Amino acid sequence: MEIIRILKNPMIMVPYILSAMIALFWPNREIEIPILTDFLKLIIEHVPSVHGYATKSKFPYVSGFYFSFSSILFLPCLIYYLRNKGSSFGSIEKMEKLRLKVQQKTFPRLFSLFAILFVVAMLYGAWIQTGYQFSVVPVNEKRWALAVIGPFGSVFLWHIFA
User: Fold this and answer.
1) What count of other Cβ atoms lies within 10 Å of the Cβ of residue 99?
2) pLDDT score recorded for residue 49
3) What span, in angstroms and rounded, lies between the C-alpha atoms of 121 and 119?
4) Domain ranges of the chain
C-alpha cells in the first residue's frame, strides 16, 4: 500500500497536479509579465536540460516554464523531506529499520558512498541531459505526455529519491 501513501502525500501530489495543469493549459506564447519572462529566459539560457526540452519541443514556452517551475519545486520539497524524515518512509520506525539494515551491511560506508555518488550522478545527468524523449512517451510532441510523464524526467521528483 506504499502507492496509496504516496498518493495521499500533498508534498507529492500538489506539485504534480500544478505541473500537469501547466503542461495542459499554459499558453504557448511569451507571457507579458516582464519578471516572469526574464526568469524563464535566464533558466532556459543557463540550465542545459531546460534549454534542451524548450528547443526540441513543439510547444517551447510551455516546456520552458514547465521544467523551470519543476526545478523551483525541488528545493522546498527536498527541505520538507529532510526536516520530516518519517514522511518519506511512512514512519520514523521504517526509516530506522532501513538505517540499521544499511549499518549491518559488510561495507556500510562504501554503500553510503555509492548512494551519495549515485544521487550526485543522477542530478548531474538531469542537469546536463538535452531533452531526451523516448518514442513511447513523446513529452516534446504531446502536452498530455508532458503532463503525465514529465515529472519523471524533471528535477521535481528527485526529492523523493534524495
Assistant:
1) 13
2) 81
3) 5
4) 2-161
